[in-house]
Design brief:
heterotrimer; A alpha/beta (about 600); B alpha/beta (about 290); C mainly alpha (about 170); B: alpha/beta; Rossmann fold; disordered N terminus; C: about 170 residues; mainly alpha; Ferritin; 4 helices; about 60% helix; about 0% strand
């Protein structure tokens, strides 16, 4: 019996493998399991290779998992295009479409001998039972139900609900295909049973959503009333969620003519007194940088969600990467601090997005939420979230007394000035991208520039002390350490558990606040550290470099970086930790040896 | 207006304490006066007006009014104005800037604002030159114009701002100039009162880099009032015919005013909000959308 | 110079007086604007002269207003500023950076001539004898104003014949 299963399935778009993944995740959730589903596509709009990875577990899932337990290849060419995204190992059961005529002993997996390889006449069964090969995905779901014990009832319940409107005939065809798959599996048991154990939380309410929808929902919850944006993969769904829902809350959304207009409208809405946001991906972030600078100098709250994909330029539009870190921290010219936050999962996207709005409002600043394609597009099962635990912060408004002779950029102890908005009697002022004095009057005076730059940067000092924006797990005094953020953090959490199970003395720091760099938090964390890894999915080791710019990292701390579409597996990280540990032991041995 | 001819608001109520950076003699001095007068005639309190601009000499204009001003970045007055209008549809929203700001770096935005028909008035101070950066060729400079970036004469045809906005279907299109301040004030007033997107091109001479023919005397010699010509502002095709003469003649007044203004974007937003808010869950329960039973 | 919505043939004395007051108001305001521009651009001598013109226009305006009140009290006004433009006020582009007092005076002189021309051109249409008398008086006063400015011009040292533009810095790019 298994507590955790990782499925990886690939085919061409016409095979409906992603929709099978969806059905599997929903069925698992209905049966009380936790799960994560990620999708990955080729570059074709339709009919190109597509894949999904579904991880199902009896305990909350931290990431989409490492090596596959079960690989389903409807077509070998398509499957192989995903390379390291769908890694097959010696413990993988491989199920493939028998219609390829490839004998079991000649399957095109190089350098690996799977646990078991099964050719199944999936297309044939679909044709025979449903009258069309298109039902292959339903046959696959039947196979999974039969071999792994997931969704025997729930899958068809879900399909029935989804297709109810289309008629009983279609539902019945699917039922026959599903039953055929399941019957095939039951008639051909695996060498070693891989049935999942029953969930203890069956019947509990579960939510299923992805990072993009979650961030949009969180924004509306935080009081966001305006979204301005432009379609760009993989962030578009954020705007789509707004167009579906924001009207109900008295807000509005503008699909603008370009990225600049999208953020421009959001800046305008914020000036008009409403919480507002935009969402984009790498190329859009580049275009938006001038407006981000404007929001910084005009001290206007604004949230920008950047769903990272492989870059630069068009790069890898459908693959995840963390290489927008430098751009998020430093794009837009001039001396400016712009907070950057990053969620690590769909679940904490809710909290991180609310936090972004709170920081934007409190500090009157644009804030970037660095999501990534992996989090944005992956579906997670979630336990219900008690929304009453989240505090919502609104920008500081001038009091009646402050509106007598109002000074928009008044110097205050915490460098935050009450902000008025059009419609507020007595609060009129000039917002501007040009340097301005406390009253808002344009200036080019060096002393005013110095003073206002001070105001705009010092106001962030308290943010760097927000320890609650950092998560430290493992032994706090460990000499061995990891730092990881975003979707990579979930992989490192699992690596930490694996390393600890092996007896390693190690700890992990996950920052939700990436910038400004909280020197104090890192200095405390690294105090015990002799060896460590700064892990990210970038080619340039951006996180390592960003930290080194602000902190004197211990000499033994080094980057572990990989460019996009080359995902880390928890095992890779544990292996790297082993390497560090042996270095550490060698150096200790060296210390003990008498000097010659 | 009261019997003694006083309004609740006087033009001076819209004048701020900031001193214009413009060169003495700049046409923009007249434009800001025209705006003060138009706003006084409409009589909205300054704090209910948002005035947005981009970058350029003329884009300093919001700061010279007592409205909520936003002197933003080059070419982006219109997106910001749209965000303001959508966030608070009750505001009177004005946008202004120069020909470079509006028709070069920000040229892509106008068509889309027109398509959306938001109730925003856009005033372009057209001087056929980049003044703030010292006299480079602008999108409305005449072909052959010699400037510091076209030493041997421009090789490009100018943009025709009037035809541009008419072609995209703007509901209100007018032109004004400092040769007739009263007319300019009246035109701007009518533009602000128009329920939908309104465009006013103001020929505003640059005394420092402008050509002699584009100074007030030159403009007077080519100006003609559309009203006195008997032009019917409801006739869009006639307006487009007249607009063809941009650069040769300076027609003043309203080229086109849609006699049956369609609903504005704001109207449609309100309608949609009213329709959908009926079955709205409180936002505290927004995550219920993700429940899979 | 522009006029709209005024029927000279049927202009009443009250409206004619109000019109004359508005003409002076407009000129006064324009000179105030010019003076402020000259202050801002550190051309104090031109600013001083424009303030002198502000005073002249104001004084004339006050005299006209006194007459209007004496004759018509606070009876409602039916002519408005929107009906006139640039009658006695100099054109907006008459102001220039670094104006010499001489050029400032020349600009003022040109607008006094313009005002004179306005009253002259209106006279043939006037039917009311009192209005006609008033316009003739105003016309003559414009000549007096011209003389005032000419007197100021005469006080100046002779023109060097050099252009101001040859001495000043180029505009600063922003």
């Amino acid at each position: 019996m298994r507590k955790d299963l990782v499925f990886g399935m690939a085919g061409s778009g016409g095979d409906g493998i992603v929709s099978a993944g969806d059905s599997l995740l929903q069925a698992a959730a209905a049966e009380g399991y936790h799960g994560v589903m990620t999708k990955s596509f080729g570059s074709q709009i339709r009919g190109g290779e597509s894949s999904c990875r579904v991880r199902i577990s009896t305990t909350p899932v931290l990431n989409p998992g490492g090596n596959l337990d079960v690989a389903v290849a409807l077509n070998w060419d398509d499957f192989l295009k995903f390379g390291a995204e769908l890694p097959v190992s010696g413990t993988t059961v491989v199920i493939y479409e028998a219609a390829t005529n490839i004998p079991e002993d000649q399957i095109p997996l190089v350098g690996v001998t799977p646990l078991q390889v099964i050719a199944v006449p999936i297309a044939g069964m679909a044709k025979e039972t449903a009258g069309t090969e298109r039902a292959k995905n339903t046959v696959v779901l039947g196979l999974i139900a039969g071999w792994f014990g997931i969704g025997a009832v729930a899958v068809m319940k879900g399909i029935r609900k989804k297709l109810a409107k289309k008629g009983e005939e279609l539902v019945e065809a699917n039922q026959r295909a599903f039953d055929a798959g399941r019957a095939f599996a039951l008639a051909h048991p695996l060498k070693a049973s891989m049935n999942i154990v029953a969930s203890e939380t069956k019947g509990n309410v579960k939510l299923i959503t992805d990072g993009n929808d979650m961030s949009a929902a969180a924004a509306i919850f935080a009081g966001c009333q305006f979204f301005g944006g432009y379609p760009i993969t993989p962030s578009t769904e954020v705007m789509q969620f707004f167009t579906d829902h924001v009207w109900r809350y008295g807000g509005s959304v503008l699909q603008a003519e370009d990225e600049i207009a999208g953020i421009g409208a959001a800046v305008g809405a914020s000036f008009a007194g409403k919480k507002s946001m935009t969402a984009t991906s790498g190329p859009g972030l580049s275009l938006k940088s001038e407006m981000m600078g404007l929001a910084s100098i005009a001290e206007l709250p604004l949230v920008i969600i950047d769903v990272q994909r492989g870059g630069p330029s068009t790069g890898l539009p459908t693959k995840t990467e963390q290489s927008d870190l430098f751009a998020a921290a430093f794009s837009a010219h001039g001396d400016v601090i712009r907070p950057v936050l990053a969620p690590t999962s769909v679940a904490d996207t809710f909290r991180t997005t609310i936090e972004a709005f709170n920081i934007a409002e409190y500090y009157q600043t644009p804030v970037i939420v660095l999501s990534d394609q992996e989090i944005a597009a992956r579906k997670e099962t979630l336990d219900p979230i008690d929304t009453s635990q989240f505090k919502i912060i609104d920008r500081l408004r001038p009091t009646g007394a402050e509106l007598q002779g109002y000074t928009r950029f008044k110097q205050t102890e915490n460098h935050i000035s009450p902000i008025s908005h059009p419609g507020m009697l007595g609060g009129t002022y000039l917002a501007s991208g040009i340097e301005h004095s406390e009253s808002g009057a344009p200036t080019n005076s060096g002393s005013v520039h110095q003073r206002m730059s001070d105001k705009r940067t010092k106001k962030f000092d308290p943010l760097k002390n927000r320890k609650d924006l950092f998560e430290i797990t493992g032994n706090p005094d460990a000499p061995l350490a990891m730092v990881a953020w975003g979707s990579v953090a979930g992989i490192c959490r699992e690596a930490l558990a694996m390393a600890q199970a092996e007896g390693m003395n190690v700890k992990l720091l996950v920052p939700y606040l990436l910038y400004p760099v909280a020197e104090g938090v890192y200095n405390d964390f690294f105090a015990s550290v002799q060896k460590g890894l700064i892990i990210d999915q970038t080619h340039l080791a951006q996180t390592f470099k960003l930290l080194r710019m602000h902190i004197d990292l211990p000499k033994g701390v080094q980057p572990l970086s990989r460019s996009g579409a080359n995902p880390f597996l928890p095992g890779d990280i544990v292996a790297a930790l082993h390497h560090l540990l042996s270095e550490l032991q060698r150096s200790h041995e060296g210390e003990l040896q008498p000097q010659e | 207006m009261s019997a003694t001819g006083t309004c609740e608001y006087q033009p001076k109520d819209y004048k701020s304490d900031l001193k214009p950076i413009w060169c003495p003699g700049c046409g923009d001095f007249s434009v800001v006066q025209g705006i003060y007068r138009a706003l006084a005639a409409i009589g909205r309190p300054p704090h209910e007006i948002a005035f947005v601009s981009g970058i350029g000499c003329s884009s300093r204009i919001p700061g010279y009014t007592t409205a909520y001003g936003f002197n933003s970045v080059h070419g982006r007055a219109l997106p910001i104005a749209q965000g303001i209008k959508m966030a608070n549809p009750d505001l009177t929203v004005l946008a202004a800037g120069g020909d470079g700001d509006g028709f070069s770096i920000g040229g892509g935005h106008i068509a889309h604002l027109i398509r959306r028909n938001m109730d925003i008035t856009y005033i372009v101070m057209d001087n056929q030159i980049y003044g703030l950066t010292k006299g480079q060729l602008s999108p409305t400079s005449q072909k052959g114009r010699v400037t510091c970036t076209s030493r041997y004469g421009s090789m490009e045809e100018p943009v025709n701002p009037l035809l541009y906005v008419l072609a995209y279907g703007a509901g209100f299109v007018a032109q004004a100039s400092p040769t007739d301040l009263a007319g300019m004030a009246a035109t701007i007033e009518e533009a602000i009162r128009y329920p939908g997107f309104a465009f006013v091109n103001v020929q505003s001479p640059c005394v420092t880099y402008g050509e002699e023919a584009q100074q007030i005397k030159g403009l007077k010699s080519i100006s003609e009032s559309l009203a006195s010509m008997g032009h019917n502002p409801a006739d869009r095709l006639a307006a487009m015919d007249l607009a063809q003469q941009y650069g040769q003649k300076m027609h003043l007044g309203v080229f086109y005013r849609n006699p049956e203004p369609p609903p504005t974007y704001g109207d449609l937003v309100k309608e949609r909000q009213a329709l959908l808010s009926k079955d709205a869950q409180p936002k505290e329960r927004i995550l219920d959308l993700f429940i899979k039973k | 110079m522009a006029i709209q919505g005024i029927d000279f043939a049927n202009l009443s004395l009250k409206d004619a007086l109000d019109l004359a007051i508005l003409v002076e108001d407009e000129a006064q305001e324009r000179y105030e604007e010019f003076a402020a521009q000259m202050d801002q651009h550190r051309t104090p001598e031109a600013a001083k002269f424009f303030r002198y013109m502000v005073e002249n226009e104001a004084k004339h305006g006050r005299e006209l207003l006194a007459r209007r009140i004496k004759l018509f009290g606070d009876a409602p006004r039916s002519v408005t500023r929107a009906m006139i433009f640039d009658i006695e006020a100099p054109d907006y582009d008459a102001a220039r950076a670094f104006m010499t007092p001489r050029n400032a005076m020349k600009a003022a002189l040109a607008s006094e001539v313009k005002a004179h021309d306005f009253f002259v051109s209106a006279l043939p249409a006037l039917k009311d004898a009192d209005v006609r008398a008033l316009f003739e008086e105003l016309r003559d006063e414009e000549v007096e104003h011209q003389d005032l400015v000419k007197k100021e011009l005469a006080k100046l040292p002779p023109d060097s014949g050099l252009s101001d533009e040859d001495f000043v810095d180029e505009p600063a790019a922003q």
